[in-house]
Amino acid sequence: MNVTLLPVEGKKKRISISTLDQARQIVCEYAYNSPIQVIVLMDGSFMLMDEEGKLKGLEINERATEIAHENNMLYPSDFIVGDVILVDDVDEFDALPYE
Q1: Is there a domain that residue 12 lies in?
Q2: Residue 8 within any structural domain of the chain
Q3: Does the residue 90 lie in any domain?
Q4: C-alpha of 76 from chain center
Q5: What is the pLDDT of residue 34?
Q6: For residue 31, what pLDDT is reported?
Q7: How far is CA 1 from the centre of its chain?
Q8: According to DSSP H, which parts of the chain are helical?
Q9: Contact assessment for residue 24 and residue 36, using Cβ atoms and an 8 Å cutoff
Q10: How far is CA 21 from CA 9, 40, 49, 77, 97, in A?
Q11: What stretches in the chain show pLDDT beneath 70?
Q12: Could you list the residue range(s) of the whole structural domain that residue 78 is in?
């Protein structure tokens, strides 16, 4: 399935993922068994990010933080760190295998 990668540095881009594990590896910097945090946006799409990103000292993701604030999904002083995947097609994502 195609999703949008919102990297900390560089331009956003469409990428293809075929498993849930692959999505986790992208946002968790390939750390085995790192948990994923999900933020559901007002239009039903959602963002996937490394739940432990702040503890790992990842850089602030300005683009993802702005999107979350526009959707009233973060406290005004909060922010998102690390690379983020933006998923538009929830049904297709739900059908992805884990591995």
Answers
A1: yes
A2: yes
A3: yes
A4: 19
A5: 82
A6: 64
A7: 15
A8: 20-27, 62-70, 90-94
A9: yes
A10: 23, 19, 13, 31, 8
A11: 30-32
A12: 2-94
How many domains is the chain built from?
A: 1
pLDDT of residue 88: 93
Q: The pTM is what?
A: 0.90
- For residues 43, 25, 20, 64, the Cα torsion angle rounded to the nearest 10 degrees is 0
The radius of gyration of the chain from alpha carbons, rounded to an integer in Å, stands at: 13
For 7-68, strand residue ranges (E) read 13-16, 36-40, 46-50
What is the predicted pLDDT for the residue at 30?
Answer: 61
pLDDT tens, position by position, 55-74: 999 999 999 999 999 999 99
Residue 99 lies in a domain: no
First to last CA, the chain: 14
CA atoms within 13 A on the CB side of 41: 19
* Tokens, residue 81: 């760190």
